[in-house]
Design brief:
By secondary structure, the protein is α+β, with helices and mostly antiparallel strands. The chain has 4 domains: about 10-65, Nucleic acid-binding proteins (OB fold (Dihydrolipoamide Acetyltransferase, E2P), Beta Barrel), CATH 2.40.50; about 75-135, Nucleic acid-binding proteins (OB fold (Dihydrolipoamide Acetyltransferase, E2P), Beta Barrel); about 145-210, OB fold (Dihydrolipoamide Acetyltransferase, E2P) (Beta Barrel), CATH 2.40.50; about 215-285, Winged helix-like DNA-binding domain superfamily/Winged helix DNA-binding domain (Arc Repressor Mutant, subunit A, Orthogonal Bundle), CATH 1.10.10. It is built from 4 helices and 18 strands. Pfam families: CvfB_1st (PF21191), CvfB_2nd (PF21543), S1_2 (PF13509), WHD_CvfB (PF17783).
């Protein structure tokens, strides 16, 4: 059985030079340091600290680049490729990217990380000494955590989703706060590894926070008012909807509740942009036409 394992850092020394690089050895096994990995001034007579991985041919190889992410060491890695039949590939600083198997990802592919998302992970090997990325556990994430202060309430935070649950999503913010987004506080379920921005709606005794991805009331009104106004413009300034329209008709047309519709319509009327008449709403400049 091989004593040298992919994903680890070891000390080796030069055994012999070959046209495509150097073979390094621990005295029992040889590992290739490819010529693309050989820096200027390399001295094969000196002991070398190297990281072991599989090259593109699947052979155990060495590099003088020591990545932060390795067996027993965690770090953030960017997702650089998604393969539906395999999983996602992360970049850890090597010439070869590392696979996080689909077996370790959410069951629904739409919740898999996308390119540019980030995962907090380490490395593992299978029985064939093949190297894979391994997602951090809750315990690993908690080691990064910083307790939030009560004055964080209603502030905006950004964070990365690291765990998906039936009830919602766990994130860790840029500051290191552990956060939870209940499914009622979002319009869609974010992906694993996705960066999200929300507002703090609660700070718990343990220093973790509850987060909402929904807009504040005034932000929602602005967005809804813009949607109604754009619809009116698209219809030439007139629409057969007003504050007494049926809730289902409003929901079918504008994808908002009647309460939200009335608040947004009230904003537009207060600003003098629309008026209501005989079950219709009109842009003010179209009201007399």
């Amino acid at each position: 059985m091989s004593r040298l394992e992919a994903g680890t850092v070891v000390q080796l020394y030069g055994a012999r030079e070959v046209p495509f690089g150097y073979f390094l050895t621990d005295g029992e096994e040889d590992v290739l340091l490819h010529h693309t990995e050989v820096p200027d001034g390399f001295d094969p007579q000196q002991e070398q600290t190297v990281f072991l991985y599989q090259d593109h041919e699947g052979r155990l190889a060495a590099t003088l680049k020591i990545p932060e992410i390795r067996k027993g060491h965690f770090g953030w890695a960017e997702v650089v490729e998604v393969k539906e039949n395999l999983g996602v590939f992360i970049h850890i600083g090597l010439t070869k990217d590392i696979l996080v198997s689909k077996d370790d990802l959410p069951e629904l592919p739409r919740l898999w990380p996308a390119r540019g998302d980030r995962l907090y992970c380490t490395l593992k090997t299978d029985k064939k000494n093949r190297l894979f990325g391994m997602l951090a556990t809750e315990e690993n994430i908690r080691r990064l955590a910083t307790p939030a202060d009560k004055n964080l309430f209603n502030k905006n935070v950004k964070g990365t989703v690291y765990r998906l649950l039936m009830e919602g999503s766990n994130i860790i913010t840029e500051e290191g706060y552990l956060g939870f987004i209940h499914h009622s506080e979002r319009t869609r379920e974010p992906r694993l590894g996705e960066m999200v921005e929300g507002r703090v709606i609660g700070v718990k005794e343990d220093g973790s926070i509850n987060i909402s991805l929904l807009p504040r009331v005034h932000e929602a009104i602005d967005e809804d008012a813009e949607r109604i106004y754009s619809y009116l413009v698209g219809r030439g300034g007139n629409m057969p909807y007003w504050d007494k329209s049926l809730p289902q008709d409003i929901k079918d047309r504008f994808q908002m509740s009647k309460g939200s519709f009335k608040r947004a319509l009230g904003k537009l009327m207060k600003e003098g942009k629309v008026i209501q008449k005989d079950g219709w709403t009109h842009l003010t400049e179209k009201a007399d036409q």
